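Input chain follows. Return structure tokens only.
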Amino acid sequence: MAGYEVIAEGIYLVGGPNISRSEDATVFVVDFEGELLMIDSGSGRSSRVLEDNIRATGLDPHKINRLILTHCHIDHIGSAPYFRSEFGCRLLIHEEDAEAIETGDPVRTAANWYETDFPPTKIDEKLKGGGGWLDFGKDKLHWLHTPGHTPGSICLYLDRGGKRILFGQDIHGPFLPSFRSDIGKWQESMEKLLQLKADILCEGHFGIFQPQERVTGYIKKYLRQNS
């Protein structure tokens, strides 16, 4: 397995299928001039692999200031307790998905799908409302509340090197009552993402899509399938 993949300057894919373990959703680290942001954390069975992959990029995991969880499912949140315990990073998630993590709900976290469990874990910062940004020196990381797959799903984006990079984890679904999914809200969320005109899409399970035409085509494909 490859240790990491460079997506753009200072943006690394460090986990996911063919990178860490097959059951891991994609995991990213963004370098903001030495301050690191981690996006999602895999299923929990590859914590040390993720750590090793981060180190392989030349980055120090102790510099991870914040770990943003795009939603409450185990393949995205599994190693969050490890990274906070080992490196002191703060955990962030939208308030609509926070309860599932803080109670370790086996259904809402989908831990039961993976025949594992997730320990009740405190969230340090709950994102509220429809969107906002996090400041990293001169840079900003934007977040959008994109409910549909789960009530608290979010997507992230930033502009770097003349390109807009969108982290759209699990925008494809699936949509299940046990996840408290809502197709109508998801369709509205996808229209918001199309308006961003992203040049690169970092998806949760199906890889990296670029240029802008492929990003748009990917989102519209799922809109057609779920119309």
